[in-house]
Amino acid sequence: MLTSGDAILQVAHENSFAVPAFNISDWNMCRGIVEISEEKNAPLLIAIHPDELSHTTDALMPAIRELAHRASVPVAIHFDHGATVDQMVWAVQSGFTSVMLDGSMLPFDENVALTKAAVDIAHAVGLSVEGELGTIGKTDAEAEDGAAEIIYTVPEDAVRFIELTGVDSLAIAIGTSHGIYPSWMKPELKLDLLKEIKAAVNIPLVLHGGSNNPDSEIGEAATLGVNKINISSDIKVAYHTKMREVMADASLREPNTIQPPAIEAMKVEAAHKIDLFGAAGKASLF
Ligand SMILES: [Zn+2]
């Protein structure tokens, strides 16, 4: 069923697991992600970044909402990395049930002001807002934005930020980056910092750039207070790697022949994340 982001994250927060937010950029990815969440009986956030929405167009939103309505598990449709008040209004009008305002690259006071404006708009229509404090990295040209260097979230700042803005969940920087890490770079999460932040703020926490990190660290983060983990690169790599393999056969033409194996490969990767985050079976908590 179509659900608000807040309703899903509160259950994850109370039960110490993380809900995957899978970024989708086309209808097939969207269908596959809903299917695997149903097979795993796991709650789901379908995440769509403004760049992805400009590709799918917002005309696809009614179909995504219908798909969520028909799903046997709770599904929220999340606007990922909104950057302006105008985009917040657009997201609300388009039918998202959860929004993010990312002011993390701004000075603290400007981030507070912009996030507070987003909260005022979203709360007025009963939607929750994810803010971001600290900046995560960016590892490759195709990745979403990030800083050249990670600025770790300071627990006291997080407390102040939540008080001043009224955000419902907070994305934090504890060592991840958007994209796929180059071979020389070994990501390492500061799990002690995560524990400190969680103890100080007591709201759902969010990890961006969850792709391509060691499973053990991500799994532990999900038990220590991270309640939403964004996965974009890993499922897209699985989807398109399989598609390239299938398309090596130049005689194939029909999307219905080419795309299903790619969807299946993406579902295998997504299932692994759902298990890793402790989200499998958790739809029964709703
Ligand atoms: Zn992100």
UniProtKB/TrEMBL annotation:
- The UniProt entry annotates the active site at 80
GO molecular function terms attached to this record: aldehyde-lyase activity; zinc ion binding
Gene Ontology BP annotations:
carbohydrate metabolic process
Task: Return the Gene3D superfamilies for the record.
Answer: Aldolase class I
Which parts of the sequence bind Zn(2+) 1? 81, 178, 208
Supply the alphabetized keyword list.
Answer: Metal-binding, Zinc
List the NCBIfam families: cbbA
Query: Which protein is depicted?
Result: Ketose-bisphosphate aldolase
